[in-house]
Specification:
single chain, alpha+beta, 17 helices, elongated
């Protein structure tokens, strides 16, 4: 019997003990003693429209996960519970499991799969801390496309490896930058990963609700993933004349718009703005290549520009943040000054059309039935337009398949 088989036996035994001790007893014990139902209702009230979309059974799991985290996190209730008579009188193996988890706290983690060395076992990497650890999770093993996801999971140590508790939320096509953006929309004071994780610990529910967007596809145009890139730099002066050869320029009030030649339009929309009054340069683009080329062109005459974007957020996370948090999100306050209504509408429709196509093609590739009406409603486009777009795309796919058989 190999090492993984031995660890598997240990994990199954711990899962059984955990179910009897934590699921069936300790969750209810803590909820009653600490009056956690009222606390959770208070946290959920702010996100009620989204919370109402969560299936009742899933909400039950999320609440249990919240309570378990309150019990076993660093400084959690378990440290005092071990001295309670109700806990001390548990069977030895149950008490020992609780004592182990009091020594090694549970934690919420955003992690990705590095390797799947044996069935139900994964080498995971925390996307914020960089920690690599061994995880046992039969439910993750059953998830399709599991490697193309960032997992939001509650981790507990069993003496051999880590195991999960509650719902394992596999968020397709979301990156660390997406979660950082989401967190800063909740709390603008967040400046680093440590502050982000403290926000998650304080109230994980809005992050849990991202499960509603777990299958959002990436939006791709002409081979480039559509993401919103932006950075802001403070400048004492701006060498506009020296940049004229690389940019098309317009000025309104105290703001100068610089549209990068050949990349200022679809799909990159690589554009910079300099606010003369605020002395700020804002770089924006809808593709990584566009942002890199924009920064490269500006750096020819402006020194010390940051290489990476401060914001790099997917269209899916923009939608999720807007709907979960119930707020209007404006990344670039200068865009409307220069963008005609028709141009702005075209850009928004482009994102919606690509979102619809990605969902339809993904469903087609998996062999599933394609519900054009449902997908068009999710993407936010007209049903008739979606039907025509898919019919043309389906013909193109069939033509390509026939050519491949020749």
């Amino acid at each position: 019997m190999d090492n993984y088989s031995l660890i598997e036996l240990h994990c199954r035994k711990i899962s059984q003990i955990s179910a009897e001790t934590i699921d069936e007893f300790l969750i209810y014990y803590a909820a009653d003693r600490e009056k956690l139902e009222g606390e959770m209702d208070g946290k959920l009230r702010r996100y009620r429209p989204t919370a109402d979309r969560i299936p009742e059974d899933s909400m039950g799991y999320l609440k249990a996960e919240y309570i378990a985290f309150k019990i076993f996190k660093t400084g959690g209730y378990i440290s005092k519970y071990l001295n309670h008579s109700a806990i001390k009188n548990l069977p030895v193996e149950q008490y020992e499991l609780l004592a182990l988890n009091a020594q090694i706290p549970w934690r919420l983690s955003f992690s990705c799969v590095l390797n799947n060395p044996a069935p139900n076992f994964f080498v995971m990497e925390d996307v914020f801390s960089g920690e690599v650890y061994l995880l046992h999770s039969p439910s993750i093993q059953k998830t399709p496309d599991l490697e193309n996801r960032t997992w939001l999971i509650l981790l507990g140590y069993n003496g051999k490896c880590w195991q999960t508790f509650g719902l394992n939320i596999g968020l397709k096509n979301f990156l660390a930058d997406d979660f950082f953006f989401f967190a800063t929309e909740i709390n603008p004071a967040i400046e680093n990963s440590e502050m982000l994780l403290k926000e998650v610990e304080h109230n994980p529910f809005p992050f849990f609700f991202l499960l509603l967007y777990s299958e959002v596809p990436s939006v791709v145009s002409r081979g480039h993933e559509i993401r919103m890139f932006q950075s802001i730099d403070d400048l004492d002066s701006f060498p506009a004349a020296d940049l004229a050869h690389s940019f098309t320029m317009k000025k309104k009030d105290d703001v100068l718009q610089l549209k990068l030649k050949r990349m200022g339009g679809f799909p990159h929309f690589a554009v910079a703005y300099f606010d003369e009054r605020e002395k700020q340069l804002i770089r924006t683009s809808m593709t990584e290549m566009g942002f890199d080329k924009l920064s490269e062109a500006l750096s020819q005459n402006i020194k010390h520009l940051t290489a990476e974007a401060t914001i790099a957020v997917s269209t899916g996370m923009m939608v999720a943040a807007k709907e979960i948090l119930g707020k209007k999100i404006v990344l670039n306050q200068y865009e409307d000054m220069f963008t005609a209504d028709s141009d702005k509408s075209n850009k928004e429709e482009l994102v919606k059309l690509n979102r619809f196509l990605d969902m339809a093609i993904s469903a087609f590739n998996k062999g599933g039935q394609i519900d054009i009406k449902e997908l068009s409603e999710i993407a936010g486009i007209d049903h008739a337009i979606a039907q025509g777009l898919w019919e043309k795309t389906f013909k193109d796919i069939n033509r390509q398949m026939k050519n491949m058989k020749r």
